[in-house]
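for the writeup, i need someone to sanity check this before i put it in the appendix. the sequnce is what the collaborator sent (i think, or maybe the updated version? ugh). structure was predicted straight from it, no edits. if anything looks off just tell me and ill rerun, i have time this weekend
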Amino acid sequence: MKPTSLTLVALLSFTSPLAADKKPNILFIAIDDLRPELGCYGDNHIKSPNIDRIAKAGMLFKRAYCQQAVCSPSRTSLMTGTRPDTTRVWDLVTHFRTTTPDVVTLGQHFMANGYFVQGMGKIYHSSLDDEPSWSVPLGKPKAKNYALPENLKLDQREDKGKPKSKSGTPPNSRGPAFEAADVPDDTFQDGKVAELAVTTLRDMSTKKQPFFLAVGFVKPHLPFVAPQKYWDLYDPDALQLAPNPFYPKGAPDYAIRKHSGELKSYHGIPADSIPDDLARKLKHGYYASISYVDAQVGKVLDELDRLGLRENTIVILWGDHGWKLGEHSAWAKHSNTENDTHAPLLVSVPGMKQSGATTEALVEFVDIYPSLADLAGLPLPAHLEGTSFKPLLDDPARPWKSAAFSQYPREKLMGYTMRTDRHRFTIWVDAKDHAKVDAIELYDHQSDPQENTNVANDPANAATVAQLTAQWKKGWQAAKPPGSN
């Protein structure tokens, strides 16, 4: 799937906060299914000291949004710098090389500008890797999904197409949704990925070539499996369940999948609602998984420091989308809600003026590609559909985007959602004819930050709906920051 061309545009004007004669390294950390519920986001019940370290050394983006809240479309959009309607990747099976074969990915762009680019773990979605994005093949450490024998016996995902086992377990069945076992960190994939990252950093420290190291962790993705010591960080009796375990009033019945097929595919999960005791166990497992992956991030950061590479390395950490933990009677992602589209984004640039700052500016994951290129002083490919947020690193409060855009498909519909400073506005249209509107959602974050009541049909909001509809029709191009191209 090699692209046939790598067309780049001329250099833009650039002033780097780093040494002008030395290109910065990039440590690019991706975390699967990570919602912005972390210590650095003000959630002190979460034990995430290493992710918090990045925030303290850099900038925390309080309002960052993915372009579609499911793995492959989100990651494809981020890595190509284009939106789902451009990549035409709205599912987990379509590879962007079949729809946009010549697009220059983030990895390709850095390679074309002299970087050694290596990826490991989960960067693109599962089997949908992109060979042209890497200088060497993607590192894929293998590990079992569980540690306990009884759970390994239940987990038959690698036996798809085979007959039932002697125990009667059907092929392609999954084990339990969570596990706590007294085992080392490297029992599981993320521990092995952290070890590979440490080894790779040592190798790269001896080379003169700048590097772009993409490290992808899979937790806290289901199943919520983490060593026992991370479960022990949390008191299960102190865990608070979702404050809004009910469907949004007035929302179309397809807006949110009330019973997640993703969660239901695991052993022991009921087909209908999740009882409180199970919800608390699931939440405990999710938090333990965050702390487990946080420890792996810490190992990589420690090695970066030990090798003396930190002073010339940009560190970026992002979660590919949010996740519901019982909000709106739902679990997992797969919707246009704030819970699903809102995700963490942290960026640390050596020498930055606003170290430890936060910004309320609306940013999108499609902005990451141009931002990293901008920070490294590289030219920007013409196909990019995001905006570099480099100016925010110097001035976090400057006027910025008027909206962030996401989308999610439902059968023959496409739901386009727009997050403005005050509102979430979602318009459901026929996937083939956007002039045919099926439903509209409007949530006022000033009075309803949990998006519990759709007020689009309230006559008092008619003018707001009209204004937001007009803004949505102008698209993301009209929402760019003042003065941007």
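The first helix runs from residue 49 to 57. The first strand starts at residue 25 and ends at 31.
thx in advance!!
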